[in-house]
UniProtKB/TrEMBL annotation:
A Pfam family annotated for this UniProt entry: DUF4271
Organism: Bacteroides mediterraneensis
Residues annotated as transmembrane: 52-69, 103-123, 135-157, 178-199, 205-223, 235-255
Extent of the signal sequence: none
Domain of life: Bacteria
Entry annotated with the keyword Cell cycle: no
Keyword Transmembrane: yes
InterPro entries named in the record: DUF4271
UniProt protein name: DUF4271 domain-containing protein
Keywords recorded for this protein, A-Z: Membrane, Transmembrane, Transmembrane helix
Length: 269
């Protein structure tokens, strides 16, 4: 009786183990068939509008430009008219002589941030390794800081050189004209940045349009430089040297510096 009971218990245990093995094999087969069925998925391409730091920066620029346009319309209108008007001496009651630092810094900062968005978009399409290894907010912050630093250093260098070669009034007129033009550029660059971020504007078209805006910016500066500093023909050589050293070379240094910073970030991270 005991021997029969022992044999029956061992058979039940063998059947149970066999049943467990069959269940495990069935689960393995289902996992294999599940992993190989269907079409392989493709990763979604990176888009600027889905990036949180880009959205925060765009909203910041939007509120700043609303503030400037709401409270500084008269100021902007006066300086726009005064940019193409040339006077040897500024009058005591001349409206354009009032330089409001609030609107100038606000719109100038929007221009710098918009330019950094263009650079961010360019490198996001050409430097895949950079955007896979470095946090996006860090990259955008570095670009904004580099552009602001370039504008600040160039402005100080321009004031120093003008202080040596020209009088105080011409120097003040040039600085005012430069920042007025930088402020006016924000009204073109920021809408273009919105098109690039939220409407996925064609890369070649946006690159060409930004290049056209930069060239027009330099042409207007060249015109203002002639009207303000060099009213005689003998100053043309000085004009070319002055303009190339202060307006063209800093752009080259900025571009080479950004490429170098990208390589440093990739190597360090």
């Amino acid at each position: 009786m005991n021997e029969v009971s022992h044999i029956g218990f061992s058979q039940i245990q063998e059947l149970y183990e066999q049943h467990v093995k069959e269940i495990d094999n069935a689960l393995l087969r289902s996992e294999k068939t599940r992993s190989f069925t269907g079409m392989p998925g493709e990763p979604l391409p990176y888009q600027l509008r889905t990036d949180l730091p880009i959205t925060c920066v765009v909203f910041l620029c939007f509120f700043l430009i609303i503030y400037a346009l709401k409270n500084g319309k008269k100021y902007l209108h006066q300086h726009l008219k005064g940019f193409f008007r040339h006077k040897e001496r500024a009058g005591l009651f001349d409206e354009i002589s009032n330089f409001d630092i609030r609107y100038t810094l606000t719109l100038g900062s929007i221009s710098c941030i918009s330019a950094s968005l263009f650079i961010y978009d360019y490198f996001s399409k050409t430097e895949d390794v950079l955007y896979q290894t470095i946090p996006h907010y860090a990259i955008l912050s570095v670009y904004i800081l580099c552009i602001l630093l370039t504008i600040g250093v160039k402005s100080l260098l321009t004031q120093f050189i003008n202080w040596i070669f020209f009088d105080k009034e011409k120097n003040s007129t040039w600085i005012t004209a430069y920042f007025d033009l930088l402020s006016g550029a924000s009204l073109i660059l920021f809408p273009l940045a919105l098109l690039i971020v939220y409407f996925n504007l064609d890369f070649n078209f946006s690159k060409t349009f930004v290049l056209i805006v930069v060239i027009c910016f330099k042409i207007l500066l060249f015109y203002k430089c002639i009207r303000n500093f060099f009213n005689h023909f003998h100053g043309i050589l000085h004009l070319i040297l002055y303009f190339c050293s202060l307006e063209v070379i800093p752009l080259l240094f900025l571009w080479k510096g950004l490429a170098y910073i990208n390589h440093i970030l990739i190597l360090n991270f």
